[in-house]
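Reviewer comment 2.1 asked that we show a complete input and output for one of the modelled complexes. We chose the adenosine-5'-triphosphate case, as it is the one discussed in the main text.
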Amino acid sequence: MSKILIIEDEAAIRRVLSKILSEESDDYVVTEAEDGLQGLEKIKLEDFDLVICDIKMPKMDGEEVLQEAKKIKPEIPFVMISGHGDLETAVNTMRLGAFDYISKPPDLNRLLNTVRNALDKKTLVVENTRLKKKVSKNYQMIGESEPIEHIKEMIDKVAQTDARVLITGPNGTGKELVAHNLHEKSPRADFPLIEVNCAAIPSELIESELFGHVKGAFTSAVKDRAGKFEAANKGTIFLDEIGDMSLPAQAKVLRALQESVVTRVGADKDIKVDVRVIAATNKDLRKEIDEGRFREDLYHRLAVILIKVPGLNDRRSDIPLLINHFTIKIAEENGTSPKVFSKEAIALLQEYDWTGNIRELRNVVERLIILGGKEVSKADVQMFASK
Ligand SMILES: Nc1ncnc2c1ncn2[C@@H]1O[C@H](COP(=O)(O)OP(=O)(O)OP(=O)(O)O)[C@@H](O)[C@H]1O
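Response of the prediction step:
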């Protein structure tokens, strides 16, 4: 069912539109409003899939209705109806976010086509928002401890900028999660976040992986290929485990950061890229610099903003929340209802040594869900998760 609202002060046109749409499809449910004010009231109270709105109306004109509606329900597409002499306004409404406009008297085919397109777009927007929510839920940062609150505040501030961020902390503490949150909250969120695990790529391949290559650059280069920097254009590149990158690769990355250009291996021309760089490492880069394994100039380029993610042992107050989060997640994944952990079980888990951090905690919770009783008890923890 598609709910369509027609806002039109001329009764004859309103009725024609309403009749055409109702006869076109049983799926269209049409509501009418006589002026802008009435229309806006209806938009506030009901969820419409499409609004068809006249431009010239007493009380409140179509442009105003559009602007007000965009503030409260930005996802509803608007098709404007323009009369003689307000074509310029009609074009302007497109700039204000209208989906399209039709002229008076409405041409039947054009009207029905526009309505169909607008409704399709609405479905896509809704689906997109739903998927985005789903994705961002996967990267939800659980925790209310002081260090986590501080990290969340940093993310909110820094995400809005293009500043480079270096995330440090032990394995399994959530560095990747921080990188995802930074990207998703940034104006670059509609463009890709490209992750590169620098430790997993052999040093002789990393240059081609990051910057691409041209056909014939080396034996296995059978065709031109773009690298990760190009793939991340307008978005973000996340260089994970940057502390494991070889010195020659570091030199190439430094150049990309300094000049915002990359050169495919074997090519002679530069390609301009607009990429935000986020890097992470579990290594102490200062020590790596002292020992000659990491370039100091690259460190300063990367570490404009430093986010230190503490180990789980330094934020034990988050453990109950995390256990709860993982029981719900695991239940969702298995299509079962979440298991309950007794207070004593949680208290005992809170005392354990979590050098394996959140990744280890999740594994333990999963093990307890599988092996423990209906309610996971302290004895279950002692038996299946003892340290
Ligand atoms: N605050 C948190 N809330 C919920 N889940 C979290 C949190 N921090 C980490 N996790 C989860 O723990 C796991 C490990 O996190 P992540 O991969 O981000 O860690 P990492 O520091 O990047 O690890 P590594 O250095 O080993 O790559 C992931 O499944 C992640 O979703």
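The domain at 139-310 is CATH 3.40.50.300 (Rossmann fold). We note this here for comparison with the apo prediction described in Section 3.2.
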